[in-house]
């Protein structure tokens, strides 16, 4: 269970989040929607400790996440993808996925620098795990290709593989289907649904694509100007006059 309570973030004169509260049950999928600038990415940044709120609490499985360093968040089983892809363009697809797995590595930096045998064993283990994920996401054919130059739809899957390498229980997806074609959106939705089941994931998804949100999420939270303006089952939130007004900028 993830609980966000009273989160407030100010950037100078802008209040990016204003007392936002909601809960995400273990195993559920929650969509976070709202017009541009509503505060969705800022909220993700609070959950992964890239941003420290001015007020409020974030608890995951009873633990105060705001007391943790960013790398410690990944070790608690929380991973994310990024709106503009968080991949290293010159590294191969496999190496990008192994970077994700490294957050779970047990060998210390000194052991790594000295290339001790246990480091090599760990590298081999991480590589095997990366290859298994690449097979699962149908990426084996491009495992040795650098990320740069691959089609955008493929990179979205690589980014998903990198996040899964953390072995998350809570996965945060930031606009996963932005920039994909119609057909690619449907395929990606099928993939996320399958992955959710296989890996027993709890999901929080920021996405503007309503079809994707409706087909995946059990609940939806809508933000506007940093405030939660609606929350509930997807069909109910989609019909909510405040949500329609926020998106269209006119009274429903
Ligand atoms: N580092 C920052 N410094 C100053 N202002 C910021 C910063 N990050 C975000 N903001 C502002 O905070 C508000 C919320 O931005 P945020 O990116 O969280 O919205 P969003 O809902 O994710 O938007 P989008 O759908 O366009 O990604 C915006 O007004 C934005 O300009």
UniProtKB/TrEMBL annotation:
**What SUPFAM superfamilies is this protein classified in?**
P-loop containing nucleoside triphosphate hydrolases
Which Pfam families has this protein been placed in? ABC_tran, BCA_ABC_TP_C
Q: Where are the transmembrane segments?
A: none
GO cellular-component terms in the record?
Answer: plasma membrane
Q: Does the keyword Disulfide bond apply?
A: no
For this protein, the record's CDD domains field holds:
ABC_Mj1267_LivG_branched
Source species, domain of life:
Bacteria
Q: Recall the GO molecular function terms of this protein's record.
A: ATP binding; ATP hydrolysis activity
Q: Which SMART domains match?
A: AAA
Sorted keywords for this record are:
ATP-binding, Nucleotide-binding, Transport
Query: Which residues are in the ABC transporter domain?
Result: 2-250
**What InterPro entries does the annotation carry?**
AAA+_ATPase (IPR003593), ABC_AA/LPS_Transport (IPR051120), ABC_transporter-like_ATP-bd (IPR003439), BCA_ABC_TP_C (IPR032823), P-loop_NTPase (IPR027417)
Output this protein's name: ABC transporter ATP-binding protein
């Amino acid at each position: 269970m993830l609980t966000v309570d009273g989160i407030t973030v100010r950037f100078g004169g802008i209040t990016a989040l204003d007392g936002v509260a909601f809960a995400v049950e273990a195993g559920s999928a929650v969509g976070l929607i709202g017009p541009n600038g509503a505060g969705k990415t800022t909220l993700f940044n609070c959950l992964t400790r890239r941003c420290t709120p001015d007020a409020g609490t974030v608890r995951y499985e009873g633990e105060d996440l705001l007391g943790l360093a960013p790398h410690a968040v990944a070790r608690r089983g929380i991973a994310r993808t990024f709106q503009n892809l968080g991949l290293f363009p010159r590294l191969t697809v496999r190496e990008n996925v192994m970077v994700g797995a490294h957050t779970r590595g047990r060998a210390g930096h000194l052991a790594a620098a000295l290339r001790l045998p246990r480091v090599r064993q760990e590298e081999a283990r991480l590589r095997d795990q990366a290859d298994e994920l690449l097979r699962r996401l149908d990426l084996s054919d491009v495992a040795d290709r650098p990320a740069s130059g691959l089609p955008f739809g493929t990179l979205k899957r690589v980014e998903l593989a990198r996040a899964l390498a953390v072995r998350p229980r809570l996965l945060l997806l930031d606009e996963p289907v932005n920039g994909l074609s119609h057909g690619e959106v449907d395929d990606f939705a099928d993939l996320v649904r399958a992955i959710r089941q296989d890996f027993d994931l709890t999901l929080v998804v920021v996405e503007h694509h309503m079809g994707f949100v409706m087909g995946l999420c059990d609940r939806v939270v809508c933000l506007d100007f940093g405030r939660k303006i609606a929350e509930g089952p997807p069909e109910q939130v989609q019909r909510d006059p405040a949500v329609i007004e926020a998106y269209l900028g006119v009274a429903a």
